[in-house]
Amino acid sequence: MVKPFIFLALFSVTLHAQMTYPSTRKVAHTDDYHGTKVADPYRWLEDDNAADTKAWVTEQNKVTFGYLEKISYRGLIKQQLEKVYNYPKYSAPRRKGEYFYFYKNDGLQNQSVLYRQKGMNGAPEVVLDPNKLSADGTTRLTVFSLSKKGDYAVCGFSQGGSDWQEYQIMDMKTLKMLADKIEWVKVSGASWQGNGFYYSRYPKPEGSALAAKNENHQVFFHKVGTAQSVDELVYEDKANPQRFHGVYVSEDERFSFLNISDRGKGKDGNALYYRENGQKEFKPVVAEITDDQFSIVDNVGNKFLLRTNKNAKNERVVLFDPANPDEKNWKEILPEKPEPLQGAGTAGGKMFVTYLKDVTTRAYVYDLNGKLENEVPLPGLGSAGGFGGEKEDKTVFYTFSSFNYPPTIFSYDIASRKSTVFRNPEVAFTPADYETKQVFYPSKDGTKISMFIVYKKGLKLDGMNPTILYGYGGFNISLTASFSPVLIPFLDNGGVYAQANLRGGAEYGDKWHEAGMRLQKQNVFDDFIAAGEYLIAQKYTSNARLALRGGSNGGLLVGTVMNQRPDLAKVAFPQVGVMDMLRFHKFTIGWNWIADYGSSDNATDFKNLYGYSPLHNIKEGINYPATLVTTADHDDRVVPAHSFKYIAELQAKAAKTTTNPLLIRVDVNSGHGASNTAKSLEQTADIYAFMFYNMGLSWK
Predict the structure, then answer these.
(1) pLDDT of residue 119
(2) Candidates 443, 672, 675, 680; catalytic one
(3) pTM, to two decimals
(4) How does pLDDT run across 428-448, given as a tens digit for each residue?
(5) The one catalytic residue among 552, 599, 643, 680
(6) Which end of the chain, N or C, is less surrounded by CB atoms within 10 Å?
(7) Which of 46, 47, 5, 54 lies closest to 26 in space, CA to CA?
(8) In this predicted model, what pLDDT tens digit does every residue of 178-199 receive, in sequence order?
């Protein structure tokens, strides 16, 4: 039920001992959720194109950046971040024909540049430099997919941090773009078959391309040299408009596979179909969508290696025979292990498989029948990824990283089973100067939670150290050990970085994920709170020196914990967060998150969501932490309205009682993640400056 609108002045001034905020207009609007009436006075902020919304953003940014500009060492922090980040960064190379392709960033380039070279010793040549595509360096190369012969490539571009992409085709002989242009691509890759490729898109949105609900995901086939208007519609399902659809092709181009998921209806799994080249109809590998997940590792002749969590919470690999498709005929190739399967792929006629053991990677090589051939020794406890390649490859590449081990690229010779360093990083960093440890602490219900803690050796654990506690806890995503150069100045200034492996992630398999989703979501918040309490109890820090940080689902985490335990930390950074848990599914692809969160359309889910939604649980009379909310004007994944409404409510209810600033930083021409290097470093500098200033600390 909607009450009549009541318009107040757009801006008034709220005075506070420390801060002056622009007070946000309230409009009387009430919704009825299963008999519970919920006010939504800031609904008007959901319209990102409205002049009032843009004016509100301008006023909020004026206050925020005015505050940040007064921090004397803010510029120094940015200089230090630029200095430590300014070193060459490479991706692992990937072979296609006679060329090896790789990305390189010279140091502070806004976007990494795509190169290729003939053989491993050839002279590199620039294939595509995204830095030349926009004046501010915010146009990104999101997709680069080479045809089987390597004569053409699909290049996907995103502008200003948007999830929307435009595809073009490059002639790899001339390195020039063809006239082909494909628009409104989203949640897609590009998979070649013959003289064209499959891709997925939505119809052109009506109204705001930022916030419009994305429905009717379609798969098309585009032939090189033709207009998008004549692309073949391969698959759509108008009866189920919130399903994702994607088609991808086997390396030998013999088979194409159709993947269908229905997360908007709360299903965490997918259906999987196939067809042989030349056939029109797809046949089922798995016809029904449940909570079980299935993906193709590779085809072995006319059979498929299939990765699945069906009857295996930590996942397994089976062999599917189209001639005997019944599940009872699936042959188990890699049985489930006590550790969760992290990755599985093939190259050089072998299967490369990684597992997570206590959130660190273990890598193995198997033959295609599932016989273990050897483990790939890694330099230590950390994260390894890569190992991809084609059937004829003799060498694969992988990258290893940890908190105190900068990303190092290794080449692995398949025949000799030996790894050698292919490229060492050139970062000015001495690993021996820093301490990394993994601890296990009890959550509220006694569950043991892993946490990585990083700090400079010799640091006195006296409870006085500025500490960032980072978490995510959702969507089956693992927070593994990885190197970040922007942590170095923070650690050198006496900082402690803690990364907690909360339930809801994939660190310990599907059971770990399920223990932190939907009606079990409170476990995630309890895990994060317990992490903060552990750090305080062990004298790493104190309430007055602790900062909470998380982005997206992690922004939801921080916002919720601020409400449930406002005394836990001095500073909080809810970044690009899902803050309105009653309406998240109304925008872009937010309905995709119903599988993890549930939906307010369901009475049981509503009660749960309403009980912790950051926006709806802000209370008056509470001394909230110093808060810097961050979002961006081109975030079309978690629309900025979440953060707009949240900070408006926080300022309205807490401005008179909190002793800390409550601010929002809205980046421009950026998205769910920073759209270029400069914006990323600027935001990090502001986060460090805000944190230290509000803890009463200096920066050297």
Answers:
(1) 94
(2) 672
(3) 0.95
(4) 899 999 999 999 999 999 999
(5) 552
(6) N
(7) 5
(8) 999 999 999 999 999 999 999 9
